[in-house]
Design a protein that fits this description.
With about 220 residues, the chain is mostly helical. The chain has a domain at about 1-10 and about 90-220: Tetracycline Repressor, domain 2 (Orthogonal Bundle), CATH 1.10.357. The protein is built from 12 helices and no strands. Helix 7 (about 90-105) packs across helix 8 and helix 10 crosses helix 11 (about 175-200). The longest helix is centred in the last third of the chain and has 24 residues, at about 175-200. The protein is globular.
Length: about 220
Amino acid sequence: MAKAARSTRSRKSTKDQASQEPKVQDQQPASDAGEAASSAPAAGGRDAVIDAAMALVAERGWARTAFADIAQAAGLSIAELYRLFPDRWSILAAFTARVDLAVLEVGDPEATDPPRDRLFDLLMRRFDALSPHRPAMRAIAEDARRDPLLALGGGARLLRSMALTLDAAGIGTAGLRGRLRAKALTALYLSVLRIWMEDESPDMSATMAGLDRRLTRFDRILQIG
């Protein structure tokens, strides 16, 4: 645990990256203004829609959040929202992809660190990136218990994210062994996610302790050293 904690204290936080709004674009020439207004929504783009959707999910739950509700919360017509996302599921997929990118944009883990420490660092970055949306994550987890489609769709996206995490940590994902590692890491992550959803400590100490214990338990399966 001590080695993992030392690694974590040196990591950069991704909280601000996960919730950062898109930068304001340069003003367009007057001659192009009409064309831009007719071809793109003017309410902040994809990130604004994702944030609006997650805020609604936190308040109402996934099952009670309709596509039209998200459009209204984002200040868009349904047609404008459809240009960005064809349905609620694509918004949820984009949220997952945004978290993946926030984890990776911090930079590659130290190459001199053992693979296990690199994996610890990457997974804690993920929890950092999710922190602004903890209430929404709780609501999604609760609804997934009663919604097989939500559970299956989320599971498939998470499996891809965990394979990407292994790749970023320099741990192979090719072949049967690689698929086993990705599935095992997915199970590990879900078990720590339950701890994280209730961990209100500023430094996420309970989450770090839970992740460290589970990485030790999964060492043999993951063969990460």
